[in-house]
Design brief:
Layout: E1 15-18, E2 21-24, E3 32-34, H1 54-58, H2 96-100, E4 105-108, E5 112-114, H3 123-133, E6 137-141, H4 142-147, H5 150-153, E7 160-165, H6 174-187, E8 192-197, H7 201-204, H8 209-226, E9 231-235, H9 248-259, E10 268-270, H10 283-296, E11 304-309, H11 332-348, E12 351-357, H12 384-387, H13 394-406, E13 415-420, E14 423-430, E15 433-440, E16 446-453, E17 458-462, E18 482-485, E19 488-491, E20 494-501, E21 506-508
Parallel strand pairs: 4-6, 4-12, 6-7, 7-8, 8-9, 9-10, 10-11, 11-12
Antiparallel strand pairs: 1-2, 3-5, 13-14, 14-15, 15-21, 16-20, 17-18, 17-21, 19-20
Length: about 500
């Protein structure tokens, strides 16, 4: 893989006027447009009819008895911060909160398209991508909840939702604001797992820290009064633009908010990590910095999410508003490698959820007209309005394989086996069986030994398809290099396996 340099165009905040109300989007800059309403919904089929339909096949947990053998059932366990969910009265509506809330494999803004896209991706197409890739949760805007039939598109398909709510300014009428928040929380209590309050607040909030605290607490109380099981999320940018370190502004904002009494009124801290494919190595220090603020203020550590998370492919133009920031070329393979490394390393340091930015690329994000910017390049599927390409990237297939292999793991039991000499090895446990993920950042191959194997054979799968581009993948089932090895017996029923680890991360099952 190529040697990379850090840098990315900063996340921008949007204000979209909808029905006369200013709504915080907080995901892309400029005018917000939504994609076309689908003419028909994905047909799931009736559970128990013995047919594994398209939606059920994409997500066998919808009806395991119809899709036996398609994919192992998840063996998820509730997180320490999540509370018991409320089951909808309508038995046809499956609560996404109860089935997907633990999974770290999420995605940001799958339905959003910029003004110049003019509905480039429909909601039905977006949902098909989500189901095929195995995405377990999405981040949406409140107006999108209103626009789409999310019961059919997401909740029935076992995809959880986190949604942005509230404005970046203190309201003229606080009682009206609380009433509106209560109405939204009540309406979507069976759909929305978490509500994000004020996007990237250290730069987005347009009033004093004291007013922020008052506003946040009032909003949190309003949410919990109607949806007590929903999570309230404090949303910060949290890091420097290139994602290489915690931002002093983010740390200071969190500390001030805690001193103003906000600590008891949110469940999750959200920070945003972008940048090149190699900056995953900084995630541990960033998490530690924020946990230190909690400790110094006598607050129990909160779960940390990244709801804006990614890296790019290609050679994006540098952002003139960030002089000195370098965006060196990254191939599709480098982007895919960065994806798996960021997810695995992030999980190892305690990040609970990571929302990739995004499914289909945004076009002309920076309004330069080139279609070649950082956020024009992070998506898992090309946007043909950028460069004439429309295929799924290698990162799409790597995301899908990662979910297929690891989802349902015991997220409280991730072991770091090695982080030295450029070699990284982590052990997961799924259905009481071990799975190792390993990679080598050195230019030359490294021999590594994995110990404690209790099976007679081991399957080793490269996490990136054996192609230079996703457009060359014609059959997902044969796209990845896979081999089976026999462990060397060390003692009775215990063996070791030695593998030559190259630049492509591998799953060892």
């Amino acid at each position: 893989m190529n040697k990379l340099h850090s840098g990315f165009a900063p996340i921008q905040i949007i204000l979209s006027v909808i029905a006369g109300t200013v709504v915080l989007g907080g995901i892309v800059g400029g005018v917000l447009y939504f994609s076309k309403q689908p003419s028909q919904q994905i047909q799931q089929g009736k559970c128990g009819d013995g047919v594994c339909g398209p939606a059920e096949k994409a997500n066998p947990n919808l009806c395991p008895k119809d899709c036996i053998g398609e994919q192992p059932e998840s063996d998820t366990k509730p997180t320490t911060t999540a509370t018991t969910t409320t089951t909808p009265k309508n038995e046809d509506v499956v609560s996404a909160k109860s089935s997907s809330k633990d999974s770290p494999f999420a995605l940001q803004a799958p339905f959003m398209s910029r003004a110049e896209d003019k509905g480039y991706i429909s909601s039905e197409e977006a949902t098909n991508f989500l189901l095929d890739a195995g995405v377990k949760e999405v981040r949406m805007l409140l107006p999108e909840l209103e626009k789409y039939n999310i019961n059919d598109l997401l909740t029935k398909n076992n995809i959880a939702i986190s949604a942005d709510i509230a404005q970046p300014m203190y309201p003229k009428d606080m009682e009206k604001h609380k009433s509106e928040v209560k109405a939204s929380a009540k309406k979507y209590k069976n759909n929305v797992e978490a509500w994000l309050v004020v996007n990237e607040a250290e730069t987005g909030w347009k009033d004093t820290p004291e007013k922020y605290a008052e506003y946040f607490i009032a909003t949190s109380k309003a949410i919990k009064s109607e949806a007590p099981d929903a999570l309230v999320v404090m949303n910060l940018a949290g890091v420097s633009p290139a994602g290489e370190m915690s931002s002093s502004a983010g740390l200071k904002f969190l500390e001030t908010a805690l001193k103003n009494g906000v600590g008891s009124y949110f469940d999750v801290l959200d920070i945003h990590i972008q940048g090149d494919a190699t900056n995953y190595k900084n995630l541990g220090k960033i998490v530690s910095d924020y946990n230190k603020i909690f400790k110094q203020n006598g607050i129990k550590e909160k779960p940390i999410w990244n709801t804006e998370f990614g890296t790019y492919d290609g050679d994006p133009d540098e952002n003139p508003r960030l002089p000195g920031m370098k965006l060196s070329y990254q191939s599709e393979e480098v982007q895919a490698g960065g994806l798996i490394k960021k997810y695995i390393y992030g999980l190892s340091v305690g990040i609970k959820k990571m929302f990739w930015t995004t499914m289909v690329e945004w076009s002309n994000y920076d309004k330069s007209g080139s279609g070649n910017c950082y956020f024009c390049s992070t998506g898992l599927v090309n946007n043909s309005r950028n460069d004439g390409l429309s295929h799924k990237k290698l990162a799409y297939y790597t995301y899908k394989k990662m979910v297929e292999v690891l989802d349902g793991s015991d997220w409280t039991n991730i072991q770091t086996i090695q982080e030295s000499g450029g070699v990284y090895i982590y052990k997961f446990t799924k259905n009481n069986k071990p799975i190792w993920v390993a990679w080598n950042d050195n230019a030359e191959s490294k021999s590594v030994t994995i110990s404690g194997i209790t099976s007679s054979s081991v399957k080793i799968t490269e996490a990136i398809p054996k192609h230079e581009s996703g457009k060359e993948v014609t059959d997902y089932s044969t796209a990845f290099t896979t081999k089976t090895e026999t462990p060397t017996t060390v003692s009775h029923l215990i063996g070791n396996i030695t593998i030559s680890l190259k630049d492509v991360p591998v799953f060892v099952e």
